[in-house]
TrEMBL record:
Lineage of the species this protein comes from: Bacteria, Bacillati, Bacillota, Clostridia, Lachnospirales
Principal EC category: hydrolase
Reactions listed under catalytic activity: Release of signal peptides from bacterial membrane prolipoproteins. Hydrolyzes -Xaa-Yaa-Zaa-|-(S,diacylglyceryl)Cys-, in which Xaa is hydrophobic (preferably Leu), and Yaa (Ala or Ser) and Zaa (Gly or Ala) have small, neutral side chains
Organism per entry: Blautia argi
Annotated family: Belongs to the peptidase A8 family.
Protein name: Lipoprotein signal peptidase
Entry keyword set: Aspartyl protease, Cell membrane, Hydrolase, Membrane, Protease, Transmembrane, Transmembrane helix
Topology with respect to the bilayer: Multi-pass membrane protein
Amino acid sequence: MEKKRRIESFLELVLSVAVLTGLDQWTKLLAVEHLKNQADIPLIPNVLSLHYLENRGAAFGIFQNQKVFLVLLTSAILLGVCYILWKLPEGKRFLPMKILCFLITAGGIGNLIDRLRLNYVVDFIYFSLIDFPVFNVADIYVTVSMVLLFVLVLFYYKDEEFQFLKWKSSKEQE
């Protein structure tokens, strides 16, 4: 039964992440086709616009031209999220965490694909009201999920509910 549940969870992850990553990549393709070398397209004047940008760094422009570091960092984070998903108990209680992990994984893979394929990440959403850095759909997945995960960890889950993440010695596993 345990093995069947793990396989079902893995298939849920693959399908969900594929759909979400596909949506991210599709929006980036549209941005390249319709925004590259074009004037910004205001969606809400002086608030939100579509603005094409090739980001060779990470969030807020940090780590510019550090592709190897960013690929390794993203890979490490994705492995960590996969570990959490593997250990995550079944049930409705942990469903919010599971969904957020799917979104984080999809966002990480979406930007990783860009970095590996293009050597930069396609960004195209600009929130000009507060002069926020240009971002993309994958960034939304990761940022919103991390904020919600932070809130869940602080206010929804109890410390003892994270026992599933503790490393067990070979003696404890027996």
